[in-house]
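Q: What would this chain look like folded?
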Amino acid sequence: MILKTNKPKYTQIIDAAVNVIAENGYHASQVSKIAKKAGVADGTIYLYFKNKEDILVSLFQEKMGIFIEKIEKEINDVDDAEKKLGILIKMHFNQLAENHDLAIVTQLELRQSNIALRLKINEILKKYLKIIDEIIDAGINQGVFRKELNPRLARQMIFGTIDEIATNWVMKDQKYNVVKQADEVHELIIQGLSSNVD
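A: My prediction, written as structure tokens:
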């Protein structure tokens, strides 16, 4: 991305890209379609983004950045690791349920086979995964999660479970309320992490 000084226009293009990519798929979403949806000239897009791939990466970076800020704000004053995890799961599902187009883009269209693109997406995800790591560490230190827990494996299990449930929901055309599953998902994950195992 080349410039972000005109934030309203940048945000306009990002939001238009979410709609266009959700509707047409990443490969069929020409820059001209995104420009038209955003109400800007095709050339204006290139003042902010290098190419279509840059739009996709920037879109994820922008939306994930906002989401991470929200999570950090919500869990900042919560000490209990189990409660922190419950908040994170509920907020993850809420974020997708509130914006169906964004759910399609993040759960389906971001899963491109392009290795360079995947690496960029993984880089953006690191901050979110770090929050999960901190929750796991807190749980181990509080004695609510098993001391012998493999933190990396636990993080993969937590993120993988949340991500798979979200993807399944999108694949089924979002026909049911995914947010209602948050408590059950939380309970199942906690059972796997808990130090209170008979």
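Residues 53 and 114 are 10 Å apart (CA to CA).
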